[in-house]
Design a protein that fits this description.
The mean pLDDT is about 90. This protein is mainly alpha-helical and about 375 residues long.
């Protein structure tokens, strides 16, 4: 089974892969439904304040899809910054960001503010990625945040994730390609069965490659090749740690396509050479694959900055002020909602226990036939 075939069996492919059109449609639907619920909730509150008389909430100016995306993107950056502050590994940071982005496919910031969901997403990712940190230590790193603030949204988050916590990242594929290219550059590569190229010929081809940038000279030795490969690897790794997390590429492309696109963005001649070695003995690299990688590169280049500028901060401030006036008032207190659900669950459990106890007492006091060792006949 190839890596691509294995990916197609995962929940990420089955539940979280979209086209750009379906992704846009889903977000528009989520936004419109949230806006309706916000207006209905405000109507109920205003009617209650008017002692049951019908009161109009007026025209509520709700967030647009684009404004929601900007706000969610900002808190994805905040999640990345906090993960770096806590010195969490890359997979924990990347998984937390994907949890946030997945959550806001079916939920709107007008219903649940990203500021409330971000700590919960990050703490959940530490558990699913097996990077243990106690809740007490985690909360200690967050100012003005309690343990309940982190735990309260967790069930909402897992529900929206459809209880699928596995996220396939492209970093592993990048490291594999990096090792293979290093082996080719040092004449220690073992070509796959059926390949007509030898390790030596591959090394010679690499030395003939055009430089990644016109201003740079060609590699003249294996040491130069190693430096070139390491440089491209570092650039691609940085792209996967930033641009890949802040765009929709995880929803649109497989992990193998992501790392190849990031590597091609860093060093196109070297990436093309690597692809050609993988398709040697065939008709060459499929045009469909080349066009897919190019589309992914374009999307990666459109990533928002991990350090928003002054104009972006002003725009985000405006959106947050607008959100203050169009939030769903019934969903603001997540801690209170969580406690209410717990109380409701405890009441149901107590009722069930009482019913079981009543049935047991009835059976204990029921008349029995002394000659029937198995008790009375069960009524149909």
């Amino acid at each position: 089974m190839t890596e691509d075939e294995f990916f197609r069996t995962t929940t990420q492919y089955r539940l979280w892969s979209y086209t750009q059109e379906t992704l846009a449609t889903l977000r528009v639907s989520t936004n419109s439904h949230a806006a309706v619920r916000v207006r209905d909730a405000l109507q109920r509150i205003y009617s209650h304040e008017e002692n049951g008389e019908t009161a109009s909430v007026g025209q509520v100016n709700c967030l647009t899809v684009a404004e929601e995306q900007k706000l969610v993107g900002f808190y994805c950056v905040k999640a990345m910054e906090f993960a770096d502050f806590c010195e969490f590994p890359t997979n924990v940071k990347a998984t937390a960001v994907q949890y946030l982005k997945r959550f806001y496919l079916s939920n709107s910031p007008m219903t649940y503010h990203p500021k409330q969901m971000m700590p919960s997403a990050l703490f959940l990712s530490t558990k699913t990625e097996n990077h243990y940190i106690s809740l007490k230590n985690f909360v200690a790193k967050l100012p003005k945040t309690t343990a309940e603030d982190v735990v309260a949204p967790e069930f909402l988050l897992t529900q929206a994730l459809r209880f699928t916590f596995d996220v396939r990242h492209p970093q592993r594929g990048l490291e594999g390609g990096f090792v293979e290219l290093l082996a080719m550059s040092t004449n220690t590569y073992h070509p796959p069965p059926g390949s007509q190229a030898s390790s030596k010929s591959l090394q010679q081809e690499m030395l003939q490659l055009a430089p990644s940038e016109k201003a740079k000279p060609k590699a003249k030795s294996p040491a130069d090749l190693k430096t070139r490969i390491q440089t491209a690897h570092s650039k691609a790794k940085e792209t996967l740690k930033t641009s890949a997390l802040l765009t929709d590429v995880y929803f649109l492309y497989a992990p193998s396509q992501l790392w190849l696109s990031a590597f091609m963005k860093a060093d196109k001649p070297l990436a093309n050479f690597y692809l050609e070695t993988k398709f040697s003995g065939t008709e060459g690299v499929p045009p469909k694959l080349r066009s897919t990688l190019q589309e992914c590169i374009v999307l990666l280049a459109q990533s928002p900055s991990v350090r928003p500028g002054e104009e972006e901060i002003k725009e985000l401030t405006r959106i947050d002020k607008k959100l203050y006036k169009c939030r769903n008032p019934e969903k603001m207190d997540l801690v209170g909602i969580n406690k209410a659900h717990k109380r409701e669950g405890e009441t149901k459990d107590e009722a069930a226990l009482d019913e079981k106890g009543l049935k047991k007492r009835k059976l204990d006091h029921a008349p029995r036939d002394p000659d029937d060792m198995f008790g009375p006949t069960i009524s149909k």
